[in-house]
């Protein structure tokens, strides 16, 4: 029901835009989180956006470089990433829930399959 896409190989300093597309869900009714799992690390929250207002959250390491946004007409949530660094290399997931806009992954009910972002020269 959720599909994350848009990953790929990019050089340091480059940009990518990830998309989280839903089927069977109206994403404007859900809090949406982007998470990532870097090699050898636990999955971590990257960013989230609240259900009915534009309030957004970011972890410190991506503030100023990543932007989460919605396009309700396309039932899609985006994660625009600029100034990418090698340490941003990870499998990126989107997730949705209707209870809390949170960094805790166990609060999320629906998950996309992940899209791989590799930042390397």
Question: Which stretches are low in confidence, meaning pLDDT under 50 for 5 or more residues running?
Answer: none
SSE sequence, one letter per element: EEEEEEEEEEE
Q: Structural class, from helix and strand content?
A: mainly beta
Number of strands: 11
Instruction: Kindly state the percentage of residues in helix.
Output: under 10%
Radius of gyration from CA coordinates: 13 Å
First-last Cα distance = 34 Å
Q: What's the rounded overall pLDDT mean?
A: 95
Question: What's the tally of helices?
Answer: 0
The biggest beta sheet is recorded as: 7 strands, mixed
Q: Estimate what percentage of residues fall within beta strands.
A: over 45%
What global shape is seen?
globular
Write up what this structure looks like.
The structure is a single chain. With 121 residues, the protein is mainly beta. A hairpin with a 5-residue loop joins strand 4 (31-37) and strand 5. Helix content is 0%, strand content 48%. It starts with a strand and ends with a strand.
